[in-house]
Design brief:
Strands 1, 2, 3, 4, 5, 6 and 7 form a seven-stranded mixed sheet that branches. The radius of gyration is 14 Å and the shape is globular. With about 140 residues, the chain is α+β, with helices and mostly antiparallel strands. It contains three helices and seven strands; from the N terminus they run ββββαβββαα. β1 and β2 form a beta hairpin.
Amino acid sequence: MVESVACILICNSKILLGKRLPGGDVGGLWEFPGGKVEANETHQQAIIREFQEEFSVDVQVGTYIANSSFNHKGKDFKLFAYQIFFKEENPNWILNEHTQIDWFTIDEINKLNLVDSDKKILPQIEKFFLEQHNEK
C-alpha cells in the first residue's frame, strides 16, 4: 500500500489549496498540498519535503487530522492529513507543481473541483476545522 500525506494549512479561517498544473489525471484540479511518502520516510518528513518541493516554503507539522483509503490505477493508497504551520510569517512562494494557490472557506472548498482522494477526507477536515474554530 502506498502512503500519501495531505497538508492542511489554516489561516484567518481559510484553508490553503493548490491548483495542479495541466496534464495527468489530476491536472487542473484543486488539492491539499502533499504527496507520496518515500521509503524510510516518516509522514512528518514527507510533509516537510513535499512542501519544500512544491512551494519552496518551510513548514512545521502539527496535529494529525484524518485518513482515508483509495485506489488509483489498480494501486491501493492510504492518505493521511495533518495540520501544518508556517515556519516564517510571510513565506516567499514558488509554485513548482501548481498554476495557483488560494485560500478557501470550507463552504467554498465544497464547491471546488477537488481531487477525488481529497474529497474523501474533506468531511473529517471540516469537522476538525469547526472544532478548532468553536474553541476560540
